[in-house]
Each structure stands twice: as C-alpha cells, then as structure tokens.
C-alpha cells in the first residue's frame, strides 16, 4: 500500500503544476468528471485526486495487480472519465474504455514526455 503524507502531497502539487502547465488541463479538470483514473505511485496524480475529491476513483497502481478488474467492472454510468497517467497506461485504459463504448474527448501529452491528461465521454 502506498502511503501519502503531507510532504509527498505538496511535492506532487508542485510537480503537477509543472507537468500540467496549469493551462487548459487545469481548466478541463475544473468541471468534475464522474470517474477519475490516477496512479497513486506518482506524486502528481496523488495531488490531483486531493484537489478533486470524487465519489468514484480508480487507482491504477492497484489495478496492475488485479489485471484492471475495477476498470473492466466499473458501473458504466460515468458520462465523463478523466485521467492523468503515463502514456503506456493510457494506451491500455483507452482500449478498454473504447470497448465499453467510450470515445476520446481530449488528450494532452507534454513534449517533455511527462504525464498524459486525457478525457473520455460516453457515446450516449
């Protein structure tokens, strides 16, 4: 289990500000998504979840050990799903969510090879 303390959360917030550029990504996350996908092993994503407390959240640090069970079995009523993940995780998540009927609404990848902010919406 990954522990988050105040120091790690503040470091993550600083990293998130640099990684996200606090531009369009921060504005996009101002509208709360129904489901947030994050990786608690990365301080920047831990800070993101602290800023956006949601009813439903999927931590992919745990999902890797359960073979994406929560993502495959989520209730499917989320109209909008947002995430801040590594590129490789985004590719796997996107494939599964497209299979479930979601489509990519936005994708933002920094040139420096940092984290990818993405959003998917249901087709209905």
Which series of helices and strands comes N to C? HHEHEHHEHEE
State the separation between the terminal residues, measured CA to CA: 36 Å
Give the overall silhouette: globular
Q: Biggest β-sheet, characterized? A: 5 strands, mixed
State which percent range the strand residues make up.
Answer: 15-25%
Structural class: alpha/beta
Q: What fraction, in percent, of the residue positions are helical?
A: 40-55%
- Low-confidence residue ranges: 19-29
Mean pLDDT over the residues: 76
Q: What strand line-up does the widest sheet have?
A: 2-1-3-5-4
Radius of gyration: 14 Å
Tally the helices.
Answer: 6
Beta strand count: 5
What's the arrangement of secondary structure elements?
Elements lengths: L5 H15 L3 H7 L4 E4 L4 H9 L5 E3 H4 L5 H4 L7 E6 L1 H13 L2 E7 L7 E7 L2
Parallel strand pairs: 1-2, 1-3
Antiparallel strand pairs: 3-5, 4-5
Helix pairs in contact: 1-3
């Amino acid at each position: 289990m990954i522990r988050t303390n105040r120091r790690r959360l503040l470091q993550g917030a600083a990293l998130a500000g640099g990684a996200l550029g606090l531009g369009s990504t921060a504005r996009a996350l101002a509208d709360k998504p129904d489901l947030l996908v994050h990786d608690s092993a990365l301080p920047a994503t831990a800070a993101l979840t602290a800023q956006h407390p949601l009813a439903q959240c999927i931590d992919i640090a745990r999902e890797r050990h359960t073979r994406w069970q929560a993502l495959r079995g989520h209730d499917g009523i989320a109209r909008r799903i947002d995430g801040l993940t590594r590129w490789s995780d985004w590719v796997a998540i996107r494939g599964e969510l497209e299979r479930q009927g979601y489509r990519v609404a936005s994708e933002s990848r920094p040139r420096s090879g940092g984290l990818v902010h993405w959003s998917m919406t249901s087709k209905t």
